Amino acid sequence: MFGPRRWSALWAVVAVLGVGIAPVAAQQGSITGRVIDAETGAPLSGAAVAVVGQDGLQGTNASGAFQWSVPDGTYSLVVTLIGYETGRLDGVGVSAGETVNVEIALRSRAEVLNPIVVTASRRQEKALDAPASISSVSQAEIAKIAAPSVAEHVKA
Can you tell me the distance from the alpha carbon of 91 to that of 19, in angstroms, rounded to the nearest whole number? Predict the structure, then answer.
């Protein structure tokens, strides 16, 4: 099927490809860390962690942990979470094959939301005849929307 020359050529191609791929993989490093409450030290789940200059966001898990794979370089991390001030950590240096561990503490912030007024009629009323704007949301519609808080359900 394959003669000795063909096997030699095949192994040469595999060796060249293997040597070419190894340096690319080695150029990656990673940033891992936790996002915590500055006052209590409790982990914050659901925070959005962005690396400036990289696409996308990473959400923190129940332990407040996140992980980013990045090329060599120095980065800034930006963390946002509803009810907290935006956090920023500058100067995070990452080298090839290195994992840098960081901890970002967010300070709580009170947010003022628009009031929600719920009214009820004693008798059944047509939506078109109501004196104010009406929105009806069924239990099934609420169950379909995955939202981390009641405020997110109201926005939807």
Answer: 32
Asked whether residue 87 is assigned to any structural domain, the reply reads yes
What average pLDDT does the chain have? Answer: 80
Q: How is the beta sheet containing 87-94 ordered, strand by strand?
A: 58-59, 48-51, 73-80, 87-94
Count the domains in the chain.
1
Report the side by side order of strands in the sheet with 99-106: 65-71, 28-37, 99-106
Domain enclosing residue 49, as ranges: 27-106
- Hey, how many other C-beta atoms are within 10 angstroms of the C-beta on 83? 13
Task: Return the pLDDT at 48.
Answer: 95
pLDDT at 53 over 70: yes
pLDDT digits (tens, 9 = 90+) for 131-140: 667 677 777 8
Kindly give the residue spans of alpha helices, DSSP state H, lying in 27-130. Answer: none
